[in-house]
Amino acid sequence: MSQSSPPKGDPQVIFADYIAERGLKMTPQRRHILEVFMRQDGHVTSEELYAKVKDSCKTIGQATVYRTLKLLCGSGLAKEADFGDGLLRYERQQGRDHHDHLICEGCGRNVEILDPTIEKHQEAVARSHGFTLTHHKLYLYGLCPRCQVKPRP
Amino acid sequence: MSQSSPPKGDPQVIFADYIAERGLKMTPQRRHILEVFMRQDGHVTSEELYAKVKDSCKTIGQATVYRTLKLLCGSGLAKEADFGDGLLRYERQQGRDHHDHLICEGCGRNVEILDPTIEKHQEAVARSHGFTLTHHKLYLYGLCPRCQVKPRP
DNA sequence: TTCATTGCAAAGCCTTTGCATAAGT
DNA sequence: ACTTATGCAAAGGCTTTGCAATGAA
Q1: How many C-beta atoms lie closer than 10 Å to residue A36's C-beta?
Q2: d(CA B137, CA A141)
Q3: What is the pLDDT of residues A48-79, one digit of tens each?
Q4: What is the DSSP letter of B84?
Q5: CA–CA separation, A66 vs B138, rounded Å?
Q6: Residue B72 contacts by C-beta under 8 Å, 6 or more apart in sequence?
Q7: Which residues of chain B are at the A interface, by a Cβ-Cβ cutoff of 8 Å?
Q8: Are A135 and B141 within 8 A, CB to CB?
């Protein structure tokens, strides 16, 4: 009911805990990068996040963004996604369900998808080879409705 | 029946046609790289192929291997695979069915898989978003039977 | 003869690292 | 105080590109 106590799943708290647990230190830069990152909706590159972070903190360095992004992945707040275009992207992970990606090759539009049957069969295939599955990557590439009509404007 | 006439699907012929069609030129280097590539079973990096090619042709350059590999992909004889470890790999594509990959994170072992149900549902998911599918990438990561017992020797 | 290819080295590109300084704990 | 973090710039690692020389067609 209170407005001032931080919510259970407050990313800043989660991150602070993660930092503290490993004897690391919380800094204004890390707080700030996390804050900006949590406002992002889709999949940002380090470069893109760096640009946005810099808007409100001129002195921050690119390397700090890279380093913090790795930490965020470690803490479970972020997740790396490699769409195969040579850039690493990061998306929010906290409190979100696993999902895969459907990517339009015309306009770059990116739809998050989840198909229980696919997920289930992935487990089955792995098991049939005696593997235990830790994770997977599924990217579907195609053309969205708009780009099917008018490809690559 | 004849031994001397090249088989229908002779890679050298396919590649030569591809080269000729676009006004490019066939060279000993390209022939040689293709020949060595076709002897590879799994998924080779440009570096690995370069090393093998060099065994029998000391003067060949790394760049030529890179360039030829791109051409081979264009001709449909090769296919790029990005397992997410920072290296591009290439596998033979000609006359082979599509397949995905199941990768052991312990020993790097790589099993080719194919699940019709998964394939079918990928199409369905794309269609449900109005997308037409051109291709996809599915990588399953886990531990093979051996590495489950004795992880990372 | 003409235009693509080659091999070398240099450049690109994204990401990581080294280091002196700054700053959490 | 003791260590970690920061920002800068340099270094890495893989891939691509520029260029003069070479070689297909």
Answers
A1: 20
A2: 8
A3: 999 999 999 999 999 999 999 999 999 999 99
A4: S
A5: 27
A6: B15, B33, B34, B37, B78, B90
A7: 82, 84, 102, 104-105, 111, 113, 115, 117-118, 121-122, 124-126, 129-145, 148
A8: yes
Q: Would the pLDDT of A108 be above 90?
A: no
What share of chain A has pLDDT > 90, as a percent? Answer: 80
Place of tokens 């049939």: A128
Q: How far is the CA of A18 from the C1' of D4 (A)?
A: 15
Q: In terms of CA atoms, which chain A residue is nearest residue B140?
A: A136
Angstrom distance (rounded) from CA B79 to CA A87: 20
SS3 B27: coil
Percentage helix, strand, coil for chain B under 3-state DSSP, each rounded to 5: 45, 20, 35
Q: What is the pLDDT of residue B5?
A: 54
- Segment A13-42 shows an average pLDDT of 97
Q: Which nucleotides of D are covered by protein (CB under 7 A)?
A: 3-9, 13-18, 23-25
D9 C1': nearest CA residue: A63
Closest Cα partner for B137 from A46, A142, A88?
A142
Q: What is the pLDDT of residues B91-146, one digit of tens each?
A: 999 888 899 999 998 888 999 999 999 999 999 999 999 999 999 999 999 999 99
